[in-house]
Amino acid sequence: MSTIDRKAKEKEALKALILKGAKKLFVEKGIEHTTIRNIAEEINYSVGTVYVYFKDKNDILHDLHTIGFQELDSYFMELYTIEDPKERLKKMGFAYIKFAIENSEMYDLMFNLKAPIEFLKDSENEDWDEGCTAFGLVKKTIEECINKGYFKGHNVEPLAFMVWSLVHGMCCLEIHQRIKNVNFTNPDTILYDGYNEYLKMIEKL
Amino acid sequence: MSTIDRKAKEKEALKALILKGAKKLFVEKGIEHTTIRNIAEEINYSVGTVYVYFKDKNDILHDLHTIGFQELDSYFMELYTIEDPKERLKKMGFAYIKFAIENSEMYDLMFNLKAPIEFLKDSENEDWDEGCTAFGLVKKTIEECINKGYFKGHNVEPLAFMVWSLVHGMCCLEIHQRIKNVNFTNPDTILYDGYNEYLKMIEKL
DNA sequence: AAATAAAATGAACGCTGTTCATTTTATTAT
DNA sequence: ATAATAAAATGAACAGCGTTCATTTTATTT
């Protein structure tokens, strides 16, 4: 029996190794410039081996997108030490943007690329658990805000969606290089300045 | 001289034909599933001919992104008949979302994909004129709002950027199928409901 | 040491974007 | 009208892509 257990662990280890190699290359040279052959070469295995452990490229991308969410969730969980929900909400948006900028390829994979969603369609569990969990943390924080008397006249879910969109939009414009190509007066601080407008706005709700 | 003129017109016509074929296929089956061979076949020309009229695929994608902006600008210009800037701003966001949903592939090309921006880097004029013009219309409207006494304590550019991000974020989440995969209570109306929260918010600024 | 099972392999397939020598078509000069 | 020239269109060929699968290598069991 111990052999079977060990085999299972070895399989998991190699799967993790492939993902690790893939992520390294993604960060280094971008997702679209990373090939299965690159990944195989990176970890000194053949192309065929990758396909023993993953159904296809979408499978790899989906697993990597899940890893990204684990990281983002840990960013969020840290902020849950903050008692005041409004203060927490403000910090969450900032952490979200920080994550997106520092992990732009992963962010794109998690929130923009089709691959992870297409993988869901082919799989048994069609729910986007990763997205639900992360968004749940935002929703919960906003719910706490409303329970505390903030944001009167607003509805939890639509407001949470609006906040998510606002921050997500900033991240997208930034990582897709649309900010620096629109001639802002202060292109270097517009992201910060824009987020500041959002903070001011929150106070007026 | 008339020959040269005619030749020039023919060249323009064929270029336009290629773009028309490309756009048709993009809408039909998505950008990433459209190949140069597809485009050539669609208009009954050879692959080589496409490369006589366009430097590479990015060149085609950039021209198509420009065409998309012409359409979006016309959406916006229509709304400039509305006198009250705040009313206009509200309608602009709605028109923007409508455009994104009805032309999701084009929208992705215009605001998310790397191709048009990469083409800019290789060209003489590195400015993103299309983006500047469209965003200029938003900026101008918000400026009018501030001049009229709305949005006190806010700054034009950062606020315009925030508004753009908010609406852009909603569009991205929708067209990248992140909305319908997060279990909203009312997934069918969340986009509308979320935009409504934004409208309520505008009133409080 | 032989038989069996599991894991890793890499050549091959049909795609992709791109190039460029060759052919076809159109224009100009005689 | 015919020959010479210029312009335009072509498609085979190249390297690289994701993916498959018969074959080989390695590990386990008998």
TrEMBL record, chains A, B:
Keywords, in A-Z order: DNA-binding, Transcription, Transcription regulation
DNA-binding region(s), residue ranges: 35-54
HTH tetR-type domain sequence ranges: 12-72
Segments forming a coiled coil: none
Top-level taxon of the source organism: Bacteria
Classification via InterPro entries: Homeodomain-like_sf, HTH-type_Tx_Regulator, HTH_TetR, MT1864/Rv1816-like_C, Tet_transcr_reg_TetR-rel_C_sf
Protein name (database record): HTH tetR-type domain-containing protein
Organism field: Flavobacterium chungbukense
